[in-house]
């Protein structure tokens, strides 16, 4: 899996009919900045409103997932979102001039091909994964639906379906590596049973459906008269039933194409959690309603974890700034280089790492028989981390000094010992004005808060003539 966020290198356009609304729409994928996420923009509506791809915005799950925000609605978003997740694209704005993305040929492959044609661009920010911390379970007894998410340092999905149909039988599909999505899952098309077609039409759905963008499974004996009616319905000269029970001799792309498409739908629906997921997803008989309900459960857990506000550190993830890059930004030298790595950096907060070792020069004189890191040096490490955040807000940061002019509400809650790793988070409390930055600093060892303070810094331009 990618460790850094990605967007696309250039805009790309697709166009076609929506399967349920029957409306022609043009959809443009646009590059977006870090932490933007997935957003639709209805450019055909006054004010061109934005619709965030968020499970809280889901308003309908009948034969597709529909989102709405501030009166703007986008139908059947799951195939588009699956393509983005499958290509590990994190940030994109999707402008659309109609109510529904084009169905294309019923899968995600045309979106994947369009996005791959323009290519992906790596961004400077690490991906903000939601790592499933514990088993999460969902069940619908009446429909025999079961979904589970288990902790895993990867993203894998397994889907099982059973339609009690002699044509399809029981099927399962698996995606063990997200990088296989384009080749193994993206081309799997949407499908329905013949007995559902009339009901869907009566429900004012599948106005844009035809044999070029959906598989129709025949699970009952069909009379010649019924075939004639179907031909008239789909405006075709004739309709036939293939030997395997698929209308109009449409050949399956995979023996388990329906199960693969259900997996595709689940990838798209779970994108509405709002962050890339690390976990093992196991699903029996999923559908849009169950997927969305499960996504809501995952998001609730994600928000609960986020409220703890404890930064995490994975030493295997690449740094935003390493020690050499930090040296270029900060003037500190031995023995006052107290930040080893920057792991996250946004406009509002920074996370830095300080590895504490017995070889630190201060341990020789600070409780040598009971080595404890001096609190003032913890504050200094916090100040240096915050200094990088402040310098990141200006062009040519090497032309500026950061001086700390105030420390308030400082608390030392636990001792820091050799062998500890300080995870330091500094977050702006208000926008920087006239070069003055006020931020909250917190230092953790694991999930335990050890030091915190409110710090004020002054950003001063260097006098290069001095």
Automatic annotation (TrEMBL):
One of its GO terms (cellular component) is cytoplasm. It is found in: Cytoplasm. It comes from the Bacteria. Its EC number is 4.2.1.59, 3.5.1.108. Signal peptide: none annotated. GO terms for biological process: fatty acid biosynthetic process; lipid A biosynthetic process. Pathway: Glycolipid biosynthesis; lipid IV(A) biosynthesis; lipid IV(A) from (3R)-3-hydroxytetradecanoyl-[acyl-carrier-protein] and UDP-N-acetyl-alpha-D-glucosamine: step 2/6. Its main location: cytoplasm. InterPro entries: FabA_FabZ (IPR013114), FabZ (IPR010084), HotDog_dom_sf (IPR029069), Ribosomal_Su5_D2-typ_SF (IPR020568), UDP-acyl_GlcNac_deAcase (IPR004463), UDP-acyl_GlcNac_deAcase_C (IPR011334), UDP-acyl_N-AcGlcN_deAcase_N (IPR015870). Zn(2+) binds at residues 79, 261, 265. CDD domains: FabZ. Gene3D superfamilies: Hotdog Thioesterase (3.10.129.10), lpxc deacetylase, domain 1 (3.30.230.20), lpxc deacetylase, domain 2 (3.30.1700.10). This is Multifunctional fusion protein. It comes from Flammeovirga agarivorans. The gene is lpxC.
